[in-house]
Amino acid sequence: MLRWIRRARRDSVLATTLRMGGKSKVSKRKKKLRPPSSDSDDSSSHREWINRIEKLYNKHVRNKRSRSRSRARRRDRKRTSSLSPSRGTPQFREPPQSPGFRSSRSSSRYSRRSSFETDRRSILSVSGNPRGAAETAVRDTHIPCDVSHAEKQSPIQDELIIHNDVVLPDEILGILGEDPSAEISSSFSLHSALSARWSHILSKGLSEIDVASLLDKCKKPSNCPLLTPPVINPEIRALLPHNMLKKDAAYVSFQTKLSAGIIGLGKGIDKLLNDSANHQDLHTSSLLPLLSDAGKILNGLFFDLSMARRSFIFPYLNKNTKDILEPCPPSEFLFGSDLCEKVKAAKSLQNACQDLKTAPTPQRYKTTNQSVSYKVKQISPDPPQGGGVTQRAYPEGSTEGQLPGEKLNSPGSPPACIQTYPGSMSVIRKALTLQGVPVNAVDTCLNSLSEATIAQYGSTFRNWWNFREASGDDVFQASAQEVISFLQHIITTTKCAFGTINSYRAALSLILPGNLGEDPMLKRFMKGVARLRPPKPRYNCVWEPRQIFIYFETHPAESPKALSMKLITLLTLATGQRLQTLSLIKISNILTSEDLIQIVVPDRIKTSRVSGRQPCLILPRFNDLPHLCVFSCLQRYLQETEKLREGQENLFLTYQRPYRTASKQTLSRWVKCTLQLAGVGTSIFKPHSSRHASTSAAKRAGVSIDVIKDSAGWSRSSNVFAEFYNRPLIDRSEFAHSIFNM
């Protein structure tokens, strides 16, 4: 295209020069134009003719430049005058074209010139360089001498000549400095094939098969063993909880992939170094697979880290939001760039589903003629226990929270107040006050209830509170028929056993007036519940304690954790006591003699009664069985924990820093862990099953029932052992053996 530009400009100047009386130089090239008549031999006339041609050409160039400057000044004045009245965008008008604008002699030449200028204008508009475009328009515009004034101001010339800025040399531009408005980009673009593959891995990750094949290719070098992820020290691993071990395993997987990526890059660098040292040319077929595998592994690791960050955030989101966010692949945002639209769409779908559901019909429960029908509905979610009494009042005439056919507020009546459940302790305190207990004696009456009892009654009080508030009745005033209606509602809506329903009855007897336990109608109802859902023991059989003894014989307790687990398990089997009782053992109450250890528990326990006996644990020494001797195990435990107590009186301490008193729940976890290691099925048998196993084993060994009751903490008249604890061993094959061995 530049060649055609030069040719058109040369033809234009040459035509103008020939009309003025001769030929001239067209460009700055050293090629000279010869005179038209080659027969003349006069050298002086020849030179005179050449000088004349050069003067005419120079004059033409000066006139052309002068006309261009004058035309630019006139155009600037027109633009200024057009902007000054309205201060708007300049509107250019085409100059009027006079008749006879072009002669027949030059029409073909100028039509070709017009098409040439149109092509040049399209090239300049695409170039994207305003300064270069203006410079080209001013420099490359050549107007013949015989062109009229109207043609000089044609639209073509107005579009080509943008402004008359002087092009500054590079030295001046260097002094002025860099253009601050110019955008400087330091980024680069990857090959389209590589970008497409990496983008897919970054958004979808690698499959397990691909990861395994890539890891198999990256064998670790023998002279760099630190590329293997380090393993946790065994001493530290024994102290870490299970969730921390799972998190560490995830980071080990990340390190393994990162190591594979580093190895892939290392192989490529090693090949470069070896080939350059041996003066060999590097082959693409040998280096490209190494770098490609390393890139895949590192991109997959990048995706895994993004998913790990998402997993740390999920616990702080509700279930509905989590279901929406899980399928969203990461992009420039961790949960995708269109998260807002997806959440809105999910909410719209949820609202549409709610609109399609039918309104629930109120349930009515009929008992006797004296009872009334209750509308059961949930007004508000239950708040946490312990809060004060808060109220929410519906304004007059409001229908919010109203069931079909139910009228919460009638015109002219005060707004209905719905009190939120205040907590079990507040309910019991108010009930005692309404029953006539003096205010200064309420705290003393509350001490008659244990913390476990108050916590157990909490769920009963919450359900009763919501049940009564939904129907607008008093929580602290109810008849036996109303209590039966509530208990029937619990049976209908839940799968509670007889023991739970009986606990509900006992809790309501505490806060309601009268003696519900002696009501004949309620007694009849409870007998029916016992027939429908009879109480069942947790275990129909029990495990053999010999399993635990074999485990202790083959696995000596060498670490503090193993010693703690062994001591608490042997104590539960040797004494038959509850874990609550064993958690209250204090060092000051341990009396040691030569062959016997006696432990007294004066604290209040589950079976503590007025004028009742507190448990006294007897631990004899077993010289023939040192690995099962509770006497020697307890003495060793006291010696190893002596320096860790720092004023702690309780026997059992946690085996991790800081060393604190082990709670009943902690001891239960230790026993469960020991049962699992010994092969006892912990999915069926709980830690409390050790009490069943020890007492049943004593009964099978011929120990007196009275001795078993006294040792395990039951009274002489109690039938608990016979009904719930005395269980046979798990030996399903005994019947078959007895048949075939006859």
TrEMBL record:
<dbReference type="InterPro" id="IPR011010">
    <property type="entry name" value="DNA_brk_join_enz"/>
</dbReference>
<dbReference type="GO" id="GO:0015074">
    <property type="term" value="P:DNA integration"/>
</dbReference>
<feature type="region of interest" description="Disordered">
    <location>
        <begin position="15"/>
        <end position="138"/>
    </location>
</feature>
<dbReference type="InterPro" id="IPR002104">
    <property type="entry name" value="Integrase_catalytic"/>
</dbReference>
<protein>
    <recommendedName>
        <fullName>Tyr recombinase domain-containing protein</fullName>
    </recommendedName>
</protein>
<dbReference type="GO" id="GO:0003677">
    <property type="term" value="F:DNA binding"/>
</dbReference>
<feature type="compositionally biased region" description="Basic and acidic residues">
    <location>
        <begin position="43"/>
        <end position="57"/>
    </location>
</feature>
<feature type="region of interest" description="Disordered">
    <location>
        <begin position="367"/>
        <end position="413"/>
    </location>
</feature>
<keyword id="KW-0238">DNA-binding</keyword>
<dbReference type="InterPro" id="IPR010998">
    <property type="entry name" value="Integrase_recombinase_N"/>
</dbReference>
<feature type="domain" description="Tyr recombinase">
    <location>
        <begin position="533"/>
        <end position="738"/>
    </location>
</feature>
<keyword id="KW-0233">DNA recombination</keyword>
<feature type="compositionally biased region" description="Basic residues">
    <location>
        <begin position="58"/>
        <end position="80"/>
    </location>
</feature>
<feature type="compositionally biased region" description="Basic residues">
    <location>
        <begin position="25"/>
        <end position="34"/>
    </location>
</feature>
<dbReference type="Pfam" id="PF00589">
    <property type="entry name" value="Phage_integrase"/>
</dbReference>
<dbReference type="InterPro" id="IPR013762">
    <property type="entry name" value="Integrase-like_cat_sf"/>
</dbReference>
<dbReference type="GO" id="GO:0006310">
    <property type="term" value="P:DNA recombination"/>
</dbReference>
